[in-house]
Amino acid sequence: MERKNVKLSRRQFLKVSAAAGVLVGTTGTASFISQAMAEPKQVDPKINYVRTTCSPNCTGACGMKALVEDGQIKSIIQAADYPEPEYNPRGCLKGLSMTNLIYGPDRVKKPLILKGKPGSGDFKEASWNESLDYTAGRLKEIADKYGPESIGVLFQVGGTGYVQKGAVSRLATLAGWTMHHAYDQNGDLPMFWPMTFGVQSEELEPREWTNSRYVMVFGSNILATRIPDAHFLLEARNRGAKIMVFDPNFSPTASKADEWIPIKASSDAAVGLGLARVLIEEKLYDADFIKTFTDLPLLVRVDNGKRLKADEVKDLVKPSDVPTYREAYVAYNGRFIGVHPEKLDLSLDILIEGEVDVPLKTGEIVKAKPAFQLLKESLASYTPEDVEKLAGIPKDDLVRIAREMAGIKPLHVIYGAGNYQWYHGDLKGRALALLPVLTGNIGKAGAGISTYAGQYRIRFKVAEWWVPEGKKQNWLPFLYVLHGPTKTMKAKWPKNGIKALIVGWGNPFDQHNMANKLREMVEKEELEFVVTTDFQMTTTCQYSHAVLPAVSWYEKTELVATPVHPYLQLQQPAVKPLYEGKPEFWIIRELAKRLNPDFEKYFYPDLESDEAAQKVIELLLKTGGPAVAGITLEQLKKGPVRLKSEVPGGRQIPFYEQVQHKQPFPPVSLPAKIEQTAQFVKSGRIEFYKDEDIMLQVGEALPVHKPPFEESEYVLNPLTKEKYKFSYVTRNAIYRVHSTHSNNVWMNELQEGKPRVWLNPEDGKEKGIKEGDAVEIFNDRGKLTVYAILDPGVGLKQAVFEEGWWSRYLKGASYNALTYPFIKPTHELYFVPGMWSPNTAWNECLCDVRKVDDIL
Ligand SMILES: Nc1nc2c(c(=O)[nH]1)N[C@H]1C(S)=C(S)[C@@H](COP(=O)(O)OP(=O)(O)OC[C@H]3O[C@@H](n4cnc5c(=O)[nH]c(N)nc54)[C@H](O)[C@@H]3O)O[C@H]1N2
Ligand SMILES: Nc1nc2c(c(=O)[nH]1)N[C@H]1C(S)=C(S)[C@@H](COP(=O)(O)OP(=O)(O)OC[C@H]3O[C@@H](n4cnc5c(=O)[nH]c(N)nc54)[C@H](O)[C@@H]3O)O[C@H]1N2
Ligand code: SF4
Ligand SMILES: [Mo]
């Protein structure tokens, strides 16, 4: 098909953008916007509106309507058809200007096979048959030589496409390939969740934000990274909520807060612990809540730091109905009580402070203390004076904030990705979780702790489609591919390592750390084959041996449900696949039958791929469990349908059932089975004390503050301590969704096409750097050249870079060449894919900056 001009003019675009801007800037505008976005009165019969879903990795999943004329998308507008008017409309400028990508010059039009060296851009165009035969042939050779598990499969967030990504999972499972979960690969897995609550992650739905009255945002840039929901935060403020933003940098979100508290980078654990100390010292905590729902009353042996088990204690027995993946521990209220992990019925006269002598079955007497007592002792190192030194927050402010937050309910803590993407992100999360838990702000409207990143939580059961019956999947955290295996890893390292990669929905050769190493691995043929499906010619495509043209989300059928706004939505094709692009389902089926003729039957061989996708959606709705029960494809064709929930009003309030109905922790995290995740919190309670050996060894039984770099960069190379003084903080850009829209001309115009680094003016002065200068950000691993912005809102000794630029905008360099795949040993304690797994820590990276003559 010939490319025709898309008629949406810049003026029209700006009109739409202005409306979307209002959405973020004010509240109560929903009806105004709905009017502005309403269909024109005189509808040309040649114009067709197709309701679909914008579905990049930002997981906003905004309902959109494509205006289609003569088989071309002329423009995209917000659908504004959610049954709850508060959710209308959703969208951002990227989504509205998606036609720039769909019809853009970087579109992959035909299958490509690499002719020259990887990265050379020397490809030959091939027919689908040739490219599929070639790809299947190479994959078969590699599987025969090294075993099928040496083929790694990378694909992104399940929630943005249950059908097409499911097809990839289905084939990977049949073929015995190794899957890499996107959650930890992206660094989005907040490890404090499984450690503390036993779940993958949880969050309040944004509509619930307006019920909060005290909101503490720790490094989450909602105004830039949750654009369609940002208005709920502002509305909460209009309704009287106090918004407190803790961020080393004056972010757009900080600019809308009641207070911005600039803290030192990666000092959040100290802040959380300092606040917790005041709550405990001044008895501002909810004692009944912590006795009922947490492990804080459970006794811990003083001699070995282990939690006391009921089985150990004289005259106590472990109840016979305790499942093997849980444990019965002990509490004390004048006598010793065995605490059943599935019954949250501990008496409220239970001891939480002090020390007791415990007679053991062996005849020994040991000393034990409730975990609360140990926490209190440990918090003694976080006095307001200490925290002022560690985090830079004035001591009086700390005390004032602690008193304030304890007095105003509901309290909601938002913990952002930029903040947990540090080596000790788990410790920070465990410390921050103390705030809502100590004050009893869990399982209630407008209350809790949330992480809004990645949004990998799948919303319903997918096994029927994703995992062919009776088959097992191989999983390997992607960090090991770069870092190499470790002695302590629980995941299984393929005996010959990873020799080939199958990539979809991602651009790891820009977006993953050691992106340069990945390139080197291809150049040196350590990675013998890479095949990528994308609709755009990304850096990853440039380094691939075969590029298979996929289609954008306006050209195929898909089912979408991300956790942010809890709606199930269809992606319906607005136009036929452009050029020779094909939906992944089609590509996978073609590959499957070439790999093994027996595989074809798993992919609806008699149906055209969009029809097959609809069949898959029906299957998922039928077998997806309670969240989708009763929802039909026909209903979805008419518009979005809210997922079901047990919470009154169908709301998404984490741990509602645990707290209101005293159910043991954790709730199920799909697709894992309860026995896989309940082992994370064996007490059946919210756990702050972790007594596994590795936790005791590294001094992290309780949440503590550990400064950045000491267990990462300085161990890797002690010289870095003197050599590199800047933190390389890579936040997400409002102009892109990671590297998607990197090449969107309108978005680039807004940034003058310039990759930039934000520096504090004092640092600029010291380095002789002025606003607009070309500067190099570098360390021993890599470098990139960008333009300097001197901003007093940026904390000292930080080089803040907005990630996601394709390397062609960085003179071929990868901004991720500087970062390193550190693996924290406590993340290797269990392995449940995408739930307890080594997580990437982008910001744990040292660098320096220097002025250079120019960029070109
Ligand atoms: N427009 C847009 N939206 C997106 C995305 C996108 O690329 N573009 N990506 C989506 C995805 S996949 C994700 S994961 C999310 C991520 O979105 P966020 O969770 O907002 O993460 P970041 O943008 O990395 O960083 C947020 C803030 O963390 C601060 N920060 C960094 N280090 C620390 C620290 O140690 N302590 C504290 N308190 N703050 C710190 C930074 O200064 C920054 O203001 O956004 C999603 N939404
Ligand atoms: N240094 C540093 N690195 C980071 C981060 C950071 O903060 N700092 N953030 C990390 C985070 S949180 C994330 S989530 C990752 C994201 O990194 P990636 O997952 O690699 O995300 P994108 O760069 O958006 O790449 C998505 C690709 O999918 C393609 N695509 C879109 N739709 C489709 C489709 O329907 N089919 C196919 N086949 N392809 C499609 C797009 O064209 C695009 O090339 O980056 C991580 N990298
Ligand atoms: S890019 Fe994200 S926030 Fe913007 S319209 Fe698309 S889904 Fe919504
Ligand atoms: Mo992410």
Automatic annotation (TrEMBL):
PROSITE patterns, per database record: 4FE4S_MOW_BIS_MGD, MOLYBDOPTERIN_PROK_1, TAT
InterPro entries in UniProt: Asp_de-COase-like_dom_sf, MoPterin_dinucl-bd_dom, Mopterin_OxRdtase, Mopterin_OxRdtase_4Fe-4S_dom, MopterinOxRdtase_cofactor_BS, Prok_Mopterin_Oxidored, TAT_signal, TAT_signal_bac_arc
Keyword Acyltransferase found: no
NADP among keywords: no
A GO term, aspect molecular function: 4 iron, 4 sulfur cluster binding
Domain 4Fe-4S Mo/W bis-MGD-type: 47-106
Cofactor(s) needed: [4Fe-4S] cluster
Alphabetized UniProt keyword annotations: 4Fe-4S, Iron, Iron-sulfur, Metal-binding, Oxidoreductase, Signal
Listed Pfam families: Molybdop_Fe4S4 (PF04879), Molybdopterin (PF00384), Molydop_binding (PF01568), TAT_signal (PF10518)
Origin: domain of life: Bacteria
Family listed: Belongs to the prokaryotic molybdopterin-containing oxidoreductase family.
Name of protein: Respiratory nitrate reductase alpha chain
Organism in which the protein naturally occurs: Desulfosporosinus metallidurans
Lineage: Bacteria, Bacillati, Bacillota, Clostridia, Eubacteriales
